[in-house]
Amino acid sequence: MLHLVLADCELERVPPEIADHRVIRWWARRRGRRPTELLLDSSLFYPALRRLEDGRRRGRPDIVHRCLLLGLDSPLNREGLLRIYVHTRNDEVIEVDPETRPPRSFNRFVGLMEELFLRGETEGGRLRMRRESLVDLLRRVGAPEILVMDPAGEPRLWRDLYRGREVCAVVGGFAEGGYLSDFGDLPVERVCVDPEPLPSSSIVARLIFSYEEREGVQERRLGRK
């Protein structure tokens, strides 16, 4: 089983300190929501983000959207060998049912996330949110091997990445900077798979494919024809 954790994702609602910005108020009126019920999106609210600490990296729900589509569509998930968890910068964890089919449209995905933040779960319960730190999540997952994707980590080839069958791979759900969370005393392995920082979605795609190759998923699926 591959447990994929998208960590410190820049997925959050509009913080109160910028809720009065004119751009955000305009979008709130258009959407029929309170400003603090909107999902923070840097492509829409860039002028307001300049007032926030870490504003350059915040408001990136698109990263989560792409990674979820890649993971949930994969043969690995269809074989029941993938579990995905989304951890946010504010220590919320989204439990993702493997049967979830997220909207292809980004705008519909934003609406789904806003519903999730408001209600704690989506209709049908495919996505559920709980308060939990990254360390507590990794302890709960309980995989004996925890790989943290980190450009400053130990260089390792994709074909040599996994050493066990029960693995937890941690990928940063942000576009720049490093992890905000502390991994505490967990026995993590920080690994580097490329000399340049790669987009989170590229890392996710290769993590899944590498595990599929290790487990012979393609051969198993084609053998059923």
Could you characterize the architecture of this molecule?
The protein has 8 helices and 7 strands. It is an alpha/beta fold and 225 residues long. The chain has 2 domains: 2-11 and 58-222, SPOUT methyltransferase, trefoil knot domain (Alpha/beta knot, 3-Layer(aba) Sandwich); 16-49, no CATH class. Strands 4-3-2-1-6-5-7 form a 7-stranded mixed β-sheet, with helices on both faces. The protein is globular, with a radius of gyration of 18 Å.
Defining traits:
single chain, 225 residues, alpha/beta, Alpha/beta knot, 2 domains, 7-stranded mixed beta sheet, 8 helices, globular
Tell me, rounded to a whole number, the average pLDDT.
Answer: 96
Oligomeric state, counting identical vs distinct chains: single chain
Largest sheet: 7 strands, mixed
CATH architecture of the largest domain: 3-Layer(aba) Sandwich
- Unreliably modeled segments: none
Distance between the termini: 24 Å
Q: Outline, from the CA principal axes? A: globular
Spatial strand sequence of the major β-sheet: 4-3-2-1-6-5-7
What percent of residues are in strands?
15-25%
The CATH homologous superfamily of the largest domain is termed: SPOUT methyltransferase, trefoil knot domain
Task: Report helical residue fraction.
Answer: 25-40%
Number of domains: 2
What is the CATH topology descriptor of the largest domain?
Alpha/beta knot
CATH class of the largest domain: Alpha Beta
Q: What is the SS-derived class?
A: alpha/beta
